[in-house]
Amino acid sequence: MDSYFCRKNRLNNYFRFKSFTIYQQNTAMKVGIDGVLLGAWTSLGNGCRILDVGTGTGLLALMMAQRNTESLVDAVEIDYDAAADAYMNVLESPFAKRIKVFASDICDFESPAKYGLIISNPPYFVNNLRGNDRQRNIARHTESLDACKVLQFADANLESDGKVSMIYPFEYHRMVENCAWELSLYPLRRCKVSMSKLNTPTRMMVEYGRSRNYCTDSELCVRDQIGYSESYKELTKDFYLYL
User: Fold this and answer.
1) The CATH fold of domain 2-186
2) Which end of the chain is more exposed for a tag (fewer CB within 10 A), N or C?
3) Where does the pLDDT of residue 12 fall: very low under 50, low under 70, confident under 90, or very high at 90 and above?
4) 186 has which bridge partners?
5) What is the three-class DSSP state of 82?
6) What is the reported pLDDT for 144?
7) What is the pTM of this model?
8) Percent of the chain whose pLDDT exceeds 90
9) For 208, what's the count of Cα atoms within 13 Å in the CB-facing half-sphere?
10) H or E stretch including 51?
11) What are the residues whose beta carbons fall under 8 Å from the beta carbon of 153, sequence distance 6 or more?
12) d(CA 154, CA 148)
């Protein structure tokens, strides 16, 4: 899948979904599996206000608007060029009237209201060496945004029964969950993601909220012996053109 994304992006610099198209000529980080997985997996309420933190091209904001036709979605992005891509993608989508894009650091963003859902695919290359591409560094490193900053923002801006949903590398799960507990945010759903049954989990998707009820745990394999797994195709079928 990743190599398919890369080939398509180099040739066309856009990715077409069933209900919208992501143009990504200005953003450093292109459409990838993590964002699509999170947008398809996250559970939604009816008519809630949603915030996409670090929206990049606007992918998650658009997925949320597609899945919940009553929702109002705000999308925040620190990089101006990426925010410009997100703005145009939203403008050309069927959901333009329900999504607002803000070019802002989340630390400076003044929420117009509390949110029922805050969703984020934050950068996660905490210890890797930085390259020469400033845009890509901002998109991939935690110097501008990390999972704990998202949780801290959620602590102040979630409705009492709201949720925050994130995806991050499996190796960082303990660190992120400790941060959540310190803020009295508790796991409601967790999903370990691996590329195949032969691989160890590489990603964790988690929804946090104020309730300390039982947490539902699951696992997802992207591939099986013959291609993409049935569970992966079932999860993402409303978005990918060819599933």
Assistant:
1) Rossmann fold (3.40.50)
2) C
3) low
4) 209
5) helix
6) 40
7) 0.86
8) 70
9) 28
10) strand 49-53
11) 53, 106, 109, 118
12) 10
